């Protein structure tokens, strides 16, 4: 088995043995779905589909920012982490394993949202749209994975938890995840295209509906990915495990 | 063949200079003890040699390459701190995980047998006793059939029996041609295992010699008493006066006391104490204290 898969498998094993960790990243989007989407969706299939896709983006964002931000920072606090760095493998398999495991958990954390949408709303997608949506989720998770890694590798775990919480709220609201594509308040419409959340949700909307994505948001998404990759790479290279002063 | 080398290596953490121009060479087949008090710089030196940290100045080399290059670590075995084992994983899973990184790992059953952990294979590491966790941690260093094993305080906190069992495992590896670099703050442990001892204090190499030679230095005792005038006494390594008492450091306290008595000088409140490693080395080598009076 390639080393990246070995690392992914062990990451998942550790997470699954403390299942509440999985529950955490699935809870927020599912609860938001129940409180903000189900009561207002009426019987409008299009609106419900948009709102569900937005909640899926919400789930993708939460799962990735917290998993990597808090998870990486906590791992760096554990003496096991420096030990694994003495094994004869470079950073690539470890990082690839972490990202694979992250992707699996991202998909798991959006299951409740999708189930609620199918059962309690009129949201509907075709099989092709569903598969496109799964692909879009993988792409949309890239900026949030990088954001989480940047946080996790540059901050101690206590600070990482706070920063992850502070970052994720404005990203969710500012990106318009809690309003429909066209009925967001004016100031959100103004800032949304410049946030990575908007580009991410536009991608998923485009995959599961006939939404025409805003080119500005997609260009900004690429800009975010490049910028966050640079920060995450820098934080990773300067990391030598726990910090002492 | 040289397996690990540090050349004029310094490492600074902010204001603290943890290592100050250290030289160390470990050759194939050696069993080297790294001895020094807590905070002396042993772990920092080890972290540099296994590629966990970069030196601030100087050069480190592992198996002929840069320790930060994964290929240089292929023949290296390291022990995690026992507290660092992932608590939710089972003993067998932890071994399998480490094995996956090596081309020809020791089979799991054989390894666990050797370290007396065969019955624990299904236990989660969080549920092991301290001694079992420590044995597992040390066992992991041997999974990849390494040429060089680096053990940082391998038996700290173990009871006597468990300590001796681990020593046997380390001796067995060395007898089969393996090379060991082992840090400890117990002279006893280093004496039991090593042939060569490198003493580290305040970030510097204070001595690098055979076990016998080092024992002669660190086996120093402190004879302290109240007396006005003392004649020159043989065997005194250093003399200090503090708080009205005279402290004599010597390698043979029994003989010193005999000499004191036969010299006929009046004295009272005689005390004989072993010196800690730190004390012994500070007294003999520190240059930031008043120079000891040679006897």
Automatic annotation (TrEMBL), chain A:
Record localization: Membrane
Domain ABC-2 type transporter transmembrane: 9-204
Pfam assignment, any one: ABC2_membrane
Main location: membrane
Protein origin, superkingdom: Bacteria
Membrane topology annotation: Multi-pass membrane protein
Spans through the membrane: 20-41, 47-66, 99-121, 127-152, 159-178, 217-236
Keyword Transmembrane: yes
Keywords: Antibiotic resistance, Membrane, Transmembrane, Transmembrane helix
Name of this chain's protein: ABC-2 type transport system permease protein
Protein's organism: Micromonospora tulbaghiae
From TrEMBL, chain B:
Membrane-spanning parts: none
GO molecular function: ATP binding
Recorded superkingdom: Bacteria
Keywords: Antibiotic resistance, ATP-binding, Nucleotide-binding, Transport
Membrane topology of this protein: Peripheral membrane protein
Keyword Protein biosynthesis appears in the UniProt entry: no
Localization (cell): Cell membrane
Keyword Membrane listed: no
One Pfam family linked to the record: ABC_tran
Major place of residence: membrane
Domain ABC transporter, chain residue ranges per copy: 4-227
Protein name: ABC-2 type transport system ATP-binding protein
Biological source species: Micromonospora tulbaghiae
């Amino acid at each position: 088995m390639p080393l990246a898969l070995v690392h992914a498998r062990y990451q998942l094993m550790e997470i699954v043995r403390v299942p509440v960790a999985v529950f955490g990243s699935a809870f927020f989007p599912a609860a938001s779905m129940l409180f903000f989407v189900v009561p207002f969706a009426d019987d409008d299939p299009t609106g419900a589909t948009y709102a569900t896709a937005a909640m899926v983006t919400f789930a993708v964002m939460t799962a990735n920012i917290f998993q990597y931000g808090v998870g990486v920072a906590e791992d760096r606090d554990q003496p096991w982490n420096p030990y694994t760095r003495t094994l004869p493998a470079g950073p690539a398999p470890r990082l690839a394993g972490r990202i694979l495991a992250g992707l699996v958990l991202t998909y798991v954390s959006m299951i409740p949202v999708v189930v609620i949408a199918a059962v309690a709303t009129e949201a509907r997608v075709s099989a092709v749209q569903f598969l496109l949506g799964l692909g879009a989720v993988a792409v949309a998770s890239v900026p949030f994975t990088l954001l989480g890694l940047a946080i996790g590798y540059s901050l101690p775990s206590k600070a990482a938890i706070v920063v992850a919480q502070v970052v994720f709220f404005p990203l969710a609201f500012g990106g318009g995840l809690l309003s429909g594509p066209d009925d967001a308040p004016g100031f959100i419409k103004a800032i949304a295209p410049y946030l990575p959340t908007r580009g991410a949700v536009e991608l998923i909307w485009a995959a599961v509906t006939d939404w025409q994505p805003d080119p500005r948001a997609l260009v900004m998404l690429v800009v975010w990915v490049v910028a966050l990759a640079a920060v995450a790479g820098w934080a990773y290279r300067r990391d030598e495990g726990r910090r002492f002063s | 063949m040289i397996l690990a080398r540090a050349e004029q290596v310094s490492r600074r953490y902010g204001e603290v200079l943890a290592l100050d121009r250290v030289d160390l060479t470990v050759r194939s087949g050696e069993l080297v003890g790294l001895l020094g008090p807590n905070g002396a710089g042993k772990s920092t030196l080890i972290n540099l040699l296994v590629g966990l940290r970069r030196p601030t100045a100087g050069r480190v080399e592992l198996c002929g390459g840069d320790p930060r290059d994964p290929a240089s670590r292929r023949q290296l075995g390291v022990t995690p701190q026992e507290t660092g084992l992932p608590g939710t994983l089972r003993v067998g899973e932890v071994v399998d995980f480490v094995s996956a990184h090596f081309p020809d790992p020791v089979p799991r059953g054989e390894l666990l047998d050797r370290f007396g952990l065969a019955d624990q294979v299904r236990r989660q590491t969080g549920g092991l006793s301290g001694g079992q966790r420590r044995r597992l941690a040390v066992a992991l260093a041997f999974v990849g059939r390494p040429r060089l094993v680096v053990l940082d305080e391998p038996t700290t906190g173990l009871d006597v029996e468990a300590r001796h069992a681990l020593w046997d495992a380390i001796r067995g590896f060395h007898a089969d041609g393996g090379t060991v670099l082992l840090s400890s703050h117990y002279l006893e442990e280093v004496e039991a295992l090593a042939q060569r001892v490198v003493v580290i204090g305040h970030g510097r190499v204070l001595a690098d010699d055979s076990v016998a030679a080092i024992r002669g230095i660190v086996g120093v005792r402190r004879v302290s008493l109240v007396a006005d005038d003392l004649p020159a006494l043989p065997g005194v390594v250093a003399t200090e006066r503090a708080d009205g008492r005279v402290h004599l450091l010597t390698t043979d306290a029994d003989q010193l006391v005999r000499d004191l008595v036969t010299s006929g000088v009046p004295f009272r409140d005689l005390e004989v104490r072993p010196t800690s490693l730190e004390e012994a080395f500070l007294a003999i080598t520190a240059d930031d204290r008043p120079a000891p009076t040679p006897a």
